[in-house]
Amino acid sequence: MFGFGFLMVPLYDLICEVTGLNGKTGRLDAAEAAAIYEPDYNRKIRVEFSVSVNGKDAWEFGSAVPSMMVSPGESYTTNFVAKNLSDAAVIGQAIPSVAPSNASLYFHKTECFCFNEQKFEGNELKEMPVTFVIDPKLPPSVDVITLSYTFFNKS
Hints:
alpha+beta, Ctag/Cox11 (Pfam 04442), 5-stranded mixed sheet
């Protein structure tokens, strides 16, 4: 029973990655994304950014812009800003999600601060980039995608 419980997290992550459940996004190398996607400049998708901080953690967290208009197949970069509001050094981690959930299969990040834990000194402010591309095979019914992050204190 213990072994089964231990294996549930990796199994859940694998199922989410394959099916797009829970809004988990894909991850691509930037060169790979450039090689496989042909931009569709005739189509525009609005990507909205939503942020939250877990519980009462002492963080400020936000996006540089509330949304962007993008063309599928083209690579885009935006920034998020986080600040440790405490005097002590802390480690944070951002957990992403994409809505609608079927869009997560087509939303791929090539660079993201969420790939790694982020160490902050006391009262430190960081600007953190996210580079992404949307697969041109995104269903035509999807014209708005929301990329959400929840920032957690892992210290």
